[in-house]
Design brief:
By secondary structure, the protein is mainly alpha-helical. The protein has three domains: 148 residues, no CATH class; 209 residues, no CATH class; 58 residues. The chain contains 14 helices and no strands. Helix 1 packs antiparallel against helix 11, helix 2 packs antiparallel against helix 3 and helix 3 runs antiparallel to helix 4. The two termini are 46 Å apart.
Length: 450
Amino acid sequence: MALGASRRLTDGVAAVETMTRFALAVLALASGVYTYLGARTILDGSPTAVFFAALIYSVSVSVGIYAFWSYMMRFYPHVTSRAARAGLLVVMAVGCAMIVAMSSWLNAAALAGSAAVEQHLARSVETYTADLDRAHQNALATQSLLPDIQRASERFAQLAAVERQSGSLTGTTGSGSVVQLLNQMSQQMKALEGTISASREQVADLVEQGQKRLEAMRTLLSTPGLIGPRADQFSTEAVALTNVMAQLSQTSVAPSIRRAADDLSLGFIAPVPDGSAPDLVNRQNQVMDTVRTSVAAQSRALAKAADEVVTRPPVPERRFVPLSPAEAVLEYAYDFIPAWAGAISIDLLPGVMVFILAIVHGAIRHQGRDMPFAERVTVAELMETLALQKAIAEKAPATGATAEAAVLAAADAGIHDDDHHRSAEAGEAHHPSNVASFDPAKAPRKGPGT
């Protein structure tokens, strides 16, 4: 039964040999085709030079893969010692790493390169959208100072109007030094208010331009067609958007507000009291000191609010880096694991066939060792044994030699017989003088016991 199983395994190995070679050739050819497609995406030069360079590289890859796995299939299943098998396994591991390095990543680039570039563009759109939002928020933070400035301006204007009409501050109606000082502070606040209001329109215009650029980038991302021209146009839009965000960062008036707030306190110049009575002059001085204190407090509050805006982290300058399909498939490898698995499987699938053949040949050898000697003897070996026994029986009585000498003589005759048959099959071209004599009457070779 073991002989039958071993024979069936042997017949099976012989039956699938042609299919194995065909499958290996197809896999090597498929890997070469996808390697060619991937290599074209990373080569520069004229179309003719790129074509021939990619073609030569892909043919080299196909031949290398076919030769490597052919060697493995031919030798590894028949190696039995552990040291030799370990050595071939190391060689196989090194070869697999080289195949992945020279072919598999280009196969992945051919399979998922366009999708990887689109992934890169999509990530870039998300990044630029976040940057534009941050730049807009920084610009709007300056606008948050506007209500405080408006309230301060209105308060100074109202105090000036009340002092002019009723003299509630100095006790004397009319437009004097106090009214002039309050109007002066109100005008300075209005100047700051005008600066912030003017920047608001510029910020709104720049944000609108940035939104248009982002919309164009999203359109390029979703438009079907070749990825190369779309990526080039995307790069142009990205540069324009970067310029818009740089201008948006420069529109911030927070530093100007900070300097103006310092000027309110440090550059405060009170007018000379113009009262005709000493008592009025004294009251005007008291009111001016109060206004000075109020302006100093307003200056500190405005400076603190401006510092909060100035210390906000700025939007980093970002430069769009275009990627080729081969580079993109490496950059975003974790997003395209199925494509990588397919690309590597094309190159390393023959390794599975190598191990299948190794297991089958190991089973054949194991079954052969377990069979009794009589079951391992073939018909040809049995016929040779019978012929040898007959030759021994014929020569031993005729020469009077011992059994051992007869065995040696018969074996020698059998060897010369085989040489004679091989010489005859080689053809008639040999010179007769080169043919050895196989005379049956030749004395047998003496054995050790003679």
